[in-house]
Amino acid sequence: MKNLTRKMITAGMAATMAASLGIAANAEEATYKVGICQLIQHEALDAATQGFQDALTEKLGDRVEFDVQNASGESVNCSTIINGFVSDQVDLILANATGALQAAVAGTSDIPILGTAVTDYATALDIDDWTGTVGGNVSGTSDCAPLDQQAAMILELVPEAKTVGMLYCSAEPNSEYQVNVVTEALKELNPDLEIKNYTFADSNDISSVATSATECDVVYIPTDNTAANNTEAINNVMEPAGVPVIAGEAGICQGCGIATLSISYYDLGYTTGEMAYEILEEGADISTMEVQYAPNVTKQYMADRCEKLGITVPDDYEAIEAE
C-alpha cells in the first residue's frame, strides 16, 4: 500500500511538472499582433515606425506580426484604421503622430496604446494638471526637443532679426503648442521682437501662406506633419526670397531649413518598441508608464543654404548631408 501511495504521489508530481512545463512552453511560444497607425508618410514618422518594429523584432523575432497602415494625413482614415485594429483584436496599437493617437484613444479603452512622435500629450489629449503619465491604456514617447533652445537657436543664427514668422498647420494642436512656447521664449530673449503667425489649413494653401511669411527676417517651423510632407513647396518660396528657416526636426530642415535642434526619430521609435515589449512580455502596467523623451538632441545645419545666406554657423553644429 505504501509503495502504491508513493507511486501515486510520484505520478502526480510528474503530471504537475509536465503541466508546468507545458504552460511555460506555451508562454514562450506566445505570439502577438501589433497594429501600427501612421498619420502620414514622411521621413521622421517613417523612421519612428522602423525603430519601433526593429526593437520588437529584435526581442520577439517571428513571434510578432505587424499590421502597418498609413492614414495619408486624414484623421478620418486614422479612425477607420483603428476600428479595424479593434475588430482584429490586436494585442497593442502604435499610434504614430498626434492624429493617430487621438483616433486610437477614441477607438478603444482596452487595447494598450503607445503613441510616438507626439509632441505634447496633455495638449493632444486635453489633459489638465499633467503629471507625466496619461493613465488608462495609454502611454508612449514624445518628440519634443527643448523648445527654449530652439528659440535661442533662431537668434543665435539670425541675431539681427527684427521679425520672426511662425509657419504651421492650424489643424495640428501640437504645432500650435510649440509655436506658443517658442514665442514666449523669444519674447524673454528679446522683448522687441515682432512675432507673426502664418497658418495654413492643409497642403493646398502652403505656398500662398509661405509667400506671406517671406516678409519676415526668419521663419520658424515646428515639428508639423503637414509642413514635413510639403517641404519642397516651402523651400521653393523661402530660398528664392532669401529667408532662412529654423526647423523643429531634421527632416523639415533638410527639405527647407538652415538649422534645427533635433532628435533621432528612429531612436524614439526604438524606445517605444522597448516599452511595447515590457507590456506584451513582462506584463508592465501601461497606466503607470511615464511618457518617455528622446535622450539626446543635436544641433544640425544645412551647409549649402547657410553659405548662400551668409550665415555663420558655430562649431557645435553638425552638418546634415544633402540628399
TrEMBL record:
Q: Which domain of life is it from?
A: Bacteria
Q: Which Gene3D superfamilies match?
A: 3.40.50.2300
- InterPro entries in UniProt: ABC_transpt-TYRBP-like, Peripla_BP_I
CDD domains with a match to the protein in the record: PBP1_ABC_unchar_transporter
Annotated signal peptide:
1-27
Recite the UniProt keywords alphabetically. Answer: Signal
User: What PANTHER family would the database entry show?
Assistant: ABC TRANSPORTER, SUBSTRATE-BINDING LIPOPROTEIN, ABC TRANSPORTER, SUBSTRATE-BINDING LIPOPROTEIN-RELATED
Q: List the protein's name.
A: ABC transporter substrate-binding protein
Its lineage opens with: Bacteria, Bacillati, Bacillota, Clostridia, Lachnospirales
